[in-house]
Protein backbone atom coordinates (compact mmCIF):
# COMPACT_ATOMS: atom_id res chain seq x y z
CA UNK A 1 0.00 0.00 0.00
CA UNK A 2 1.33 3.43 -0.96
CA UNK A 3 -0.56 5.02 1.95
CA UNK A 4 -0.60 3.13 5.23
CA UNK A 5 -3.45 4.06 7.56
CA UNK A 6 -3.95 2.73 11.06
CA UNK A 7 -5.84 3.60 14.22
CA UNK A 8 -4.45 2.91 17.67
CA UNK A 9 -4.81 4.53 21.08
CA UNK A 10 -6.92 7.37 19.71
CA UNK A 11 -4.46 8.29 16.93
CA UNK A 12 -5.13 7.96 13.22
CA UNK A 13 -1.73 7.55 11.55
CA UNK A 14 -1.26 8.12 7.82
CA UNK A 15 2.11 7.22 6.33
CA UNK A 16 3.51 7.82 2.85
CA UNK A 17 4.89 4.44 1.81
CA UNK A 18 6.09 4.51 -1.78
CA UNK A 19 9.87 4.48 -1.40
CA UNK A 20 10.56 3.32 -4.97
CA UNK A 21 9.14 6.67 -6.20
CA UNK A 22 10.32 8.79 -3.27
CA UNK A 23 6.78 8.84 -1.87
CA UNK A 24 5.56 10.82 -4.91
CA UNK A 25 1.81 11.21 -4.55
CA UNK A 26 -0.72 9.92 -7.08
CA UNK A 27 -4.43 10.67 -7.38
CA UNK A 28 -5.19 7.30 -5.81
CA UNK A 29 -3.01 8.18 -2.82
CA UNK A 30 -4.72 11.56 -2.41
CA UNK A 31 -8.09 9.87 -2.42
CA UNK A 32 -6.95 7.32 0.17
CA UNK A 33 -5.80 10.11 2.48
CA UNK A 34 -9.00 12.10 1.92
CA UNK A 35 -11.07 9.03 2.78
CA UNK A 36 -8.99 8.37 5.90
CA UNK A 37 -9.34 11.96 7.11
CA UNK A 38 -13.08 12.01 6.47
CA UNK A 39 -13.45 8.71 8.29
CA UNK A 40 -11.38 10.00 11.20
CA UNK A 41 -13.53 13.12 11.39
CA UNK A 42 -16.65 11.10 12.20
CA UNK A 43 -14.97 8.36 14.26
CA UNK A 44 -15.26 9.33 17.92
CA UNK A 45 -12.39 7.00 18.81
CA UNK A 46 -10.00 9.17 16.75
CA UNK A 47 -8.83 12.14 18.80
CA UNK A 48 -5.65 13.11 16.92
CA UNK A 49 -4.14 12.58 13.46
CA UNK A 50 -0.48 11.88 12.72
CA UNK A 51 1.05 12.25 9.24
CA UNK A 52 4.49 10.74 8.64
CA UNK A 53 6.75 9.63 5.82
CA UNK A 54 9.81 7.40 5.73
CA UNK A 55 13.14 8.14 7.45
CA UNK A 56 14.80 9.12 4.17
CA UNK A 57 11.87 10.90 2.48
CA UNK A 58 8.61 12.59 3.50
CA UNK A 59 7.31 13.08 -0.03
CA UNK A 60 8.72 14.23 -3.37
CA UNK A 61 5.39 15.94 -4.03
CA UNK A 62 3.15 15.09 -6.95
CA UNK A 63 4.01 12.13 -9.12
CA UNK A 64 4.45 14.21 -12.27
CA UNK A 65 3.49 11.45 -14.70
CA UNK A 66 0.28 10.78 -12.81
CA UNK A 67 -0.22 14.52 -12.29
CA UNK A 68 -0.16 15.25 -16.01
CA UNK A 69 -2.76 12.54 -16.59
CA UNK A 70 -5.11 13.67 -13.83
CA UNK A 71 -4.46 17.40 -13.39
CA UNK A 72 -7.01 18.44 -15.99
CA UNK A 73 -10.53 17.39 -14.96
CA UNK A 74 -13.00 15.89 -17.36
CA UNK A 75 -15.77 17.93 -18.89
CA UNK A 76 -18.24 16.83 -16.22
CA UNK A 77 -15.82 17.09 -13.27
CA UNK A 78 -15.13 20.25 -11.28
CA UNK A 79 -11.49 20.94 -10.54
CA UNK A 80 -12.39 21.06 -6.84
CA UNK A 81 -13.52 17.44 -6.98
CA UNK A 82 -10.11 16.08 -7.94
CA UNK A 83 -8.61 13.83 -5.24
CA UNK A 84 -5.90 16.34 -4.29
CA UNK A 85 -8.57 18.94 -3.53
CA UNK A 86 -10.59 16.41 -1.56
CA UNK A 87 -7.52 15.64 0.53
CA UNK A 88 -6.55 19.26 1.13
CA UNK A 89 -10.14 20.24 1.90
CA UNK A 90 -10.34 17.44 4.47
CA UNK A 91 -6.97 18.37 5.97
CA UNK A 92 -7.63 22.11 6.12
CA UNK A 93 -11.10 21.54 7.57
CA UNK A 94 -10.19 18.84 10.08
CA UNK A 95 -11.67 19.67 13.48
CA UNK A 96 -9.29 17.30 15.25
CA UNK A 97 -5.63 18.17 15.84
CA UNK A 98 -3.17 17.15 13.13
CA UNK A 99 0.47 16.39 13.91
CA UNK A 100 3.06 16.03 11.13
CA UNK A 101 6.54 14.55 11.40
CA UNK A 102 8.89 15.33 8.51
CA UNK A 103 12.13 13.57 7.67
CA UNK A 104 13.98 13.87 4.39
CA UNK A 105 12.61 15.95 1.54
CA UNK A 106 9.17 17.57 1.61
CA UNK A 107 8.66 18.90 -1.91
CA UNK A 108 5.79 21.00 -3.23
CA UNK A 109 2.57 19.90 -1.62
CA UNK A 110 4.72 18.05 0.92
CA UNK A 111 5.55 21.49 2.32
CA UNK A 112 2.18 23.07 1.56
CA UNK A 113 0.23 20.51 3.58
CA UNK A 114 2.29 21.28 6.68
CA UNK A 115 0.79 24.78 6.79
CA UNK A 116 -2.61 23.19 7.41
CA UNK A 117 -1.38 21.01 10.29
CA UNK A 118 -1.37 22.03 13.94
CA UNK A 119 1.89 20.61 15.29
CA UNK A 120 4.79 20.12 12.88
CA UNK A 121 8.11 18.53 13.82
CA UNK A 122 11.15 17.95 11.63
CA UNK A 123 14.13 15.64 11.72
CA UNK A 124 17.54 17.19 11.31
CA UNK A 125 17.69 15.71 7.78
CA UNK A 126 14.48 17.44 6.66
CA UNK A 127 14.59 19.57 3.52
CA UNK A 128 11.70 21.69 2.26
CA UNK A 129 10.94 23.24 -1.12
CA UNK A 130 8.05 24.75 -3.07
CA UNK A 131 9.25 24.73 -6.71
CA UNK A 132 5.97 25.88 -8.25
CA UNK A 133 7.48 28.76 -10.24
CA UNK A 134 10.19 26.45 -11.56
CA UNK A 135 7.39 24.34 -13.07
CA UNK A 136 5.70 27.34 -14.65
CA UNK A 137 2.98 27.28 -11.99
CA UNK A 138 2.02 29.29 -8.90
CA UNK A 139 1.53 28.52 -5.18
CA UNK A 140 -1.29 26.19 -4.20
CA UNK A 141 -3.81 25.62 -1.42
CA UNK A 142 -3.35 29.01 0.27
CA UNK A 143 0.41 28.63 0.61
CA UNK A 144 0.86 32.14 -0.77
CA UNK A 145 -1.16 33.40 2.21
CA UNK A 146 -0.09 31.02 4.97
CA UNK A 147 3.63 30.96 4.25
CA UNK A 148 3.74 34.75 4.08
CA UNK A 149 2.00 34.89 7.46
CA UNK A 150 4.49 32.42 8.91
CA UNK A 151 7.76 33.68 7.47
CA UNK A 152 7.08 37.30 6.57
CA UNK A 153 6.96 38.62 3.02
CA UNK A 154 10.71 38.86 2.23
CA UNK A 155 11.53 35.29 3.24
CA UNK A 156 8.32 33.91 1.77
CA UNK A 157 9.05 35.67 -1.51
CA UNK A 158 12.51 34.14 -1.62
CA UNK A 159 11.22 30.61 -1.07
CA UNK A 160 8.14 30.87 -3.30
CA UNK A 161 9.64 32.86 -6.16
CA UNK A 162 12.99 31.09 -6.40
CA UNK A 163 11.68 27.72 -5.26
CA UNK A 164 14.99 26.84 -3.67
CA UNK A 165 15.22 24.25 -0.92
CA UNK A 166 15.74 25.15 2.73
CA UNK A 167 16.75 23.02 5.70
CA UNK A 168 15.14 22.18 9.02
CA UNK A 169 16.79 24.91 11.09
CA UNK A 170 15.64 27.61 8.69
CA UNK A 171 12.15 26.12 8.70
CA UNK A 172 12.25 26.37 12.49
CA UNK A 173 13.35 30.01 12.36
CA UNK A 174 10.53 30.85 9.97
CA UNK A 175 7.90 29.11 12.08
CA UNK A 176 7.03 26.34 9.63
CA UNK A 177 8.01 23.72 12.21
CA UNK A 178 7.94 23.82 16.01
CA UNK A 179 10.95 21.66 16.82
CA UNK A 180 13.89 19.95 15.11
CA UNK A 181 14.99 16.56 16.42
CA UNK A 182 17.54 13.87 15.60
CA UNK A 183 16.09 11.50 13.02
CA UNK A 184 15.76 8.56 15.39
CA UNK A 185 13.83 10.68 17.89
CA UNK A 186 11.35 12.23 15.45
CA UNK A 187 8.56 9.65 15.24
CA UNK A 188 8.64 8.73 18.95
CA UNK A 189 8.46 12.41 19.88
CA UNK A 190 5.64 13.21 17.43
CA UNK A 191 3.72 10.16 18.62
CA UNK A 192 4.08 11.26 22.25
CA UNK A 193 2.81 14.72 21.33
CA UNK A 194 -0.19 13.17 19.59
CA UNK A 195 -0.78 10.99 22.67
CA UNK A 196 -0.82 14.13 24.83
CA UNK A 197 -3.55 15.55 22.63
CA UNK A 198 -5.52 12.31 22.91
CA UNK A 199 -5.36 12.49 26.71
CA UNK A 200 -6.77 16.03 26.85
CA UNK A 201 -10.49 16.90 26.68
CA UNK A 202 -11.43 16.41 23.03
CA UNK A 203 -14.05 19.17 23.04
CA UNK A 204 -11.55 21.65 24.47
CA UNK A 205 -8.94 20.75 21.85
CA UNK A 206 -11.44 21.13 19.02
CA UNK A 207 -12.75 24.44 20.35
CA UNK A 208 -9.24 25.82 20.78
CA UNK A 209 -8.28 24.82 17.26
CA UNK A 210 -11.48 26.34 15.85
CA UNK A 211 -10.90 29.62 17.69
CA UNK A 212 -7.27 29.85 16.58
CA UNK A 213 -8.13 29.23 12.92
CA UNK A 214 -11.40 31.20 12.75
CA UNK A 215 -9.90 34.53 11.73
CA UNK A 216 -8.19 33.08 8.67
CA UNK A 217 -10.77 30.47 7.63
CA UNK A 218 -12.43 32.71 5.04
CA UNK A 219 -9.14 34.13 3.67
CA UNK A 220 -7.83 30.57 3.24
CA UNK A 221 -10.91 29.52 1.27
CA UNK A 222 -10.78 32.68 -0.84
CA UNK A 223 -7.05 32.35 -1.52
CA UNK A 224 -7.42 28.70 -2.46
CA UNK A 225 -10.05 29.70 -5.02
CA UNK A 226 -7.83 32.37 -6.58
CA UNK A 227 -4.76 30.11 -6.60
CA UNK A 228 -6.80 27.27 -8.06
CA UNK A 229 -7.99 29.43 -10.96
CA UNK A 230 -4.48 30.67 -11.72
CA UNK A 231 -2.92 27.24 -11.25
CA UNK A 232 -5.39 25.65 -13.66
CA UNK A 233 -4.77 28.30 -16.30
CA UNK A 234 -1.01 28.08 -15.93
CA UNK A 235 -1.09 24.30 -16.39
CA UNK A 236 -2.24 24.95 -19.95
CA UNK A 237 0.35 27.66 -20.64
CA UNK A 238 3.53 27.10 -22.70
CA UNK A 239 5.80 27.77 -19.71
CA UNK A 240 4.43 24.77 -17.83
CA UNK A 241 4.65 22.63 -20.95
CA UNK A 242 8.32 23.57 -21.30
CA UNK A 243 8.99 22.90 -17.62
CA UNK A 244 7.38 19.45 -17.65
CA UNK A 245 8.91 18.50 -20.98
CA UNK A 246 12.34 19.48 -19.70
CA UNK A 247 11.79 17.44 -16.55
CA UNK A 248 10.94 14.29 -18.47
CA UNK A 249 13.78 14.90 -20.95
CA UNK A 250 16.16 15.47 -18.00
CA UNK A 251 17.35 18.85 -19.22
CA UNK A 252 17.23 22.42 -17.97
CA UNK A 253 14.12 24.30 -19.12
CA UNK A 254 14.48 27.37 -21.31
CA UNK A 255 12.00 30.10 -20.39
CA UNK A 256 13.79 32.86 -22.30
CA UNK A 257 11.36 32.70 -25.23
CA UNK A 258 8.36 33.52 -23.04
CA UNK A 259 7.42 37.08 -22.13
Question: Could you explain how this protein is built, in words?
Answer:
- With 259 residues, this protein is α/β, with parallel strands linked by helices.
- It contains ten helices and ten strands.
- The protein has helices at 27-42, 64-70, 83-92, 109-112, 143-151, 153-162, 168-174, 183-199, 202-235, 238-249, and strands at residues 3-8, 11-16, 48-52, 57-59, 98-102, 105-107, 119-123, 127-129, 166-167, 179-181.
- A six-stranded mixed β-sheet has the order 1-2-3-5-7-10, with helices on both faces.
- Helix 1 (27-42) runs parallel beside helix 3 and helix 5 (143-151) crosses helix 9 (202-235).
- The model has no long low-confidence stretch (mean pLDDT 95).
The span between the termini is 44 Å
> Spatial order of the strands in the main sheet?
1-2-3-5-7-10
Class of secondary structure makeup: alpha/beta
How many strands, what sense, and barrel or not for the largest sheet?
6 strands, mixed
| Number of helices, counting only DSSP H or I runs of 4 residues or more | 10
Q: How many runs of DSSP E, i.e. beta strands?
A: 10
Mean pLDDT: 95
| Overall body shape | globular
- Which series of helices and strands comes N to C? EEHEEHHEEHEEHHEHEHHH
Radius of gyration: 18 Å
What share of residues is helical? 40-55%
Low-confidence stretches: none
**In what range is the share of β-strand residues?**
15-25%
Present the secondary structure layout.
Blueprint: E1 3-8, E2 11-16, H1 27-42, E3 48-52, E4 57-59, H2 64-70, H3 83-92, E5 98-102, E6 105-107, H4 109-112, E7 119-123, E8 127-129, H5 143-151, H6 153-162, E9 166-167, H7 168-174, E10 179-181, H8 183-199, H9 202-235, H10 238-249
Parallel strand pairs: 2-3, 3-5, 4-6, 5-7, 6-8, 7-10
Antiparallel strand pairs: 1-2, 8-9
Helix pairs in contact: 1-3, 5-6, 5-9
